[in-house]
Known about the structure:
single chain; alpha/beta; 4-stranded mixed sheet; 4-stranded parallel sheet; 13 helices; 15 strands; binds pyridoxal-5'-phosphate
Amino acid sequence: xxxxxxxxxxxxxxxxxxxxxxxxxxxxxxxxxxxxxxxxxxxxxxxxxxxxxxxxxxxxxxxxxxxxxxxxxxxxxxxxxxxxxxxxxxxxxxxxxxxxxxxxxxxxxxxxxxxxxxxxxxxxxxxxxxxxxxxxxxxxxxxxxxxxxxxxxxxxxxxxxxxxxxxxxxxxxxxxxxxxxxxxxxxxxxxxxxxxxxxxxxxxxxxxxxxxxxxxxxxxxxxxxxxxxxxxxxxxxxxxxxxxxxxxxxxxxxxxxxxxxxxxxxxxxxxxxxxxxxxxxxxxxxxxxxxxxxxxxxxxxxxxxxxxxxxxxxxxxxxxxxxxxxxxxxxxxxxxxxxxxxxxxxxxxxxxxxxxxxxxxxxxxxxxxxxx
Length: 372
Ligand SMILES: *Cc1c(COP(=O)(O)O)cnc(C)c1O
């Protein structure tokens, strides 16, 4: 039986194997393994790619969010608004910074932060305690930044973008990560730009955030062995940076392949009676970290597809506010999170990775139709 995985990390790396091995080998020979030339180079290349002035390489995407918050002086007693329909990392980072996560609802068509829900939440709270808003560009689709920024600006609250699933996505040609005060990215191997291990970065145009975070990521040092502030250890190592320097050259090409795959899915599923990913706003450039559809009998469909060799996934089966660690412990929008709670029962992530062939996609959509 033909088997199609939901994601294939090895395939993407094998295509650039010799270049990556050369980069690893050169890093070994450099004799410098933490915060050296590779990291600096990557910070410059990646921030420029996003249209930002500065980049701070860190150990992972969760730390990237935490460091931005800490650099902004956000911590105990402060509130930070985000969504519940996200990787738990977004909420964990807010807690790590010491702040209280507040969760608002999403739009059912885009799966990203609902501006109306955000606005209602802010009207109903003491906005002096709300110190940041973190929209998530989920599945590779940009959140409605124009409206979110408009609301945030009315209340003078900074916006931090969680771009962990959206490397290269844009609105009107402007890349995500460059809309708010800073944008956090993860290089976890499954992401659109992936390391061979953990890695993260955040980009910003704010020199104060940049300078502060550079200290905090390394024990609060400005000068070696002299801690000016309290810090942590969260650095992007040279090996991962060297690998990312190679892979960044292929990001646009890979995203193009993802879009081709998504187009084929959408054409073949247009009459299948399922909700397809949002395509109404063509100014929004989707990078399809995931191709997510909505279907009422999701669980049964997933089982049937699995029997026929097609692996799918659910991102995510349970919203953060309903998970054991968080239930009753995070503040949620007074109106409740009805869209968040409905959507998680119906979403299904089809196989998605740049090397997925036309024939593979044909097989997935045929299998899907047989599984309905
Ligand atoms: C992956 C991810 C993160 C965290 O990244 P790590 O590198 O795993 O810490 C944060 N937010 C979202 C939406 C993610 O998908």
